[in-house]
Every structure is written in C-alpha cells, then in structure tokens.
Amino acid sequence: MMPVLTNNLLEREKPLSETIKRYAKLFEIDPNIVRALITQESAFVAEATSPTGAYGYGQFTGIGARQVYQNISQMDMRARGLASFRKSKASDPDQGIKAICATLWWLYHVKYKNVEDKVVRLEATLTFYNAGGRPAALVVKYEGHSKALPFIQQLPRNIRSQGDKYAPQVAAWYLKWHDHYKEADTPAPIEKEELVAENNKFKAVLEMLKLLNGLDEEIDVIVDSRDGLTEVTIIIPGEYQ
C-alpha cells in the first residue's frame, strides 16, 4: 500500500519546511529525505514518543542523542551548535531538525563515504539510523537492502528493530515528498488572458489580435510566452510576396 500525504501531515510539515531546507542544505542532504525520515519517525508531531522512549521529530534515543552531542558536534564546524543537544530537545524545531540532518550527514558523508553506490550508501544510512550498525553492515556487505533482507531478518528482533523494512518505507515517503514539492514548484501555465494582464504596455495590440482571431475564421493568432517574452504568430491563408 502506497503512503499518502494527508492534509494533516502537510499542515504539520508546512511551518517546518524552511528549517528543513536550511539545515538540509547546510549538511548537504536532500531535504525530501529529511521530510521522509521525519514522516516515518514522528509524522511531524513534535513531542511524539515511542513505546521504547524515543522522542521528538527524529525519535532520538538517549544513545542517539549522545552520539550527536559527544561525537558529531565535534566533527565539523557546522555541527558545533549541537554540543548542548539532548533527547529532550528533539522536539525543538531548530535543534531537533538540525540534529537529524547532522546525523544523516555523519552517516552518509563520513561513516559510509567509501560505499561507491549511492543507493546502497543511502540504504545503509537509513538502516543505521533506525537499527544501528549490524543491519546496516549487512546492507553494505550484500550491496543493497533487498539483497541483505533475508540476513537482516535472521537477526534477533531487538537488534534488527525495523531494519528489515525501514529504508524502503522512508524511500516511499521520499517519492511522495519529491512529487509534492516538484508540483508545488512548477508554475501554472499562463493563459492568454493572463498574458494580456501582465503586458499592459501591449494590451491594445493583443486585444486587437484576439478580436481578429475571433472574427475571421481563416486567420489564426497564436500567443506564446516564455523567458520573459511574448511571441505572437499570425497565420494568414495564401502566399504573400
């Protein structure tokens, strides 16, 4: 069953969108991967708490938070502000989302930087985020999550966590967010009436051509706009020298 970006989900994501974009850019991570991970972890509910005590937008455990403030914050100047990060701050939009992006940066660009296949590297990154090193090592060893799946499923449940399905689930959410923002960033086609309104300087000429187009069935007027210019083509029957 394919995931759905519900209205509630979109509304909760909206006020966090700029923060996600800012920190994703800072840490060289695709913002839609960050959105997908948060969707899977907490559905953008700030104070979401799992049965095991994981907390916040990125569902940080005490161990995960300690990895951020003890280790990742010391690795790069961009992460220095996370030296005071704790699990209790995972519900703060600024600290929580920055910690997610810094963790993904560390996994993708540092821990698994030698994995040449970028898909495998991302699958290992996501698997580690959820389930830790042992399932992620299998993803790397068998060169992909699908190939590693039978071996991940053989791990004890407390070790594999959701590692057998987490990466594909986040990937499915990624496609949804990618499509959503691709559509949102695509400008609507410009109608002829809108062209007239946007080009007041030539309004009279365009109105005349539209009128001509409507009154003479043998004359066709084509109005096209692109790259800040409007092109008008008049097609008249017969050959004229």
Order of helices and strands: HHHHHHHHHHHHEE
Task: Give the helix level as a range of percent.
Answer: 55-70%
Shape: elongated
Question: Which class best fits the helix and strand makeup?
Answer: mainly alpha
β-strand amount: 5-15%
Note the main sheet.
Answer: 2 strands, antiparallel
User: What would you report as the Rg, rounded to the nearest angstrom?
Assistant: 26 Å
- Please report the first level of CATH classification, the CATH class of the largest domain: Mainly Alpha
CATH topology of the largest domain: Lysozyme
Please give the number of β-strands: 2
Q: Which architecture of the largest domain does the CATH hierarchy give at level 2?
A: Orthogonal Bundle
Number of helices: 12
How many angstroms separate the termini?
A: 64 Å
Q: Could you list the spans in which at least 5 consecutive residues all have pLDDT below 50?
A: 190-199
Mean pLDDT rating: 86
Query: Domains counted in the coordinates: how many?
Result: 2
Widest β-sheet, arrangement of strands: 1-2
Walk me through what this model shows:
A two-stranded antiparallel ribbon has the order 1-2. It is mainly alpha-helical and 241 residues long. The chain starts with 6 loop residues before the first helix and ends in a 6-residue tail after the last strand. It is elongated. The protein contains twelve helices and two strands. The relative contact order is 0.09. Helix 4 (62-75) crosses helix 5, helix 5 (93-111) packs across helix 6 (118-131) and helix 7 crosses helix 8. 56% of the residues lie in helices and 6% in strands. It has helices at 7-13, 17-26, 31-42, 62-75, 93-111, 118-131, 133-141, 145-152, 157-160, 166-184, 192-198, 203-215, and strands spanning 220-226, 229-235. It has two domains: 7-184, Orthogonal Bundle (Lysozyme), CATH 1.10.530.10; 192-235, no CATH class. Strand 1 and strand 2 form a beta hairpin. Mean pLDDT is 86; it is low at 190-199.
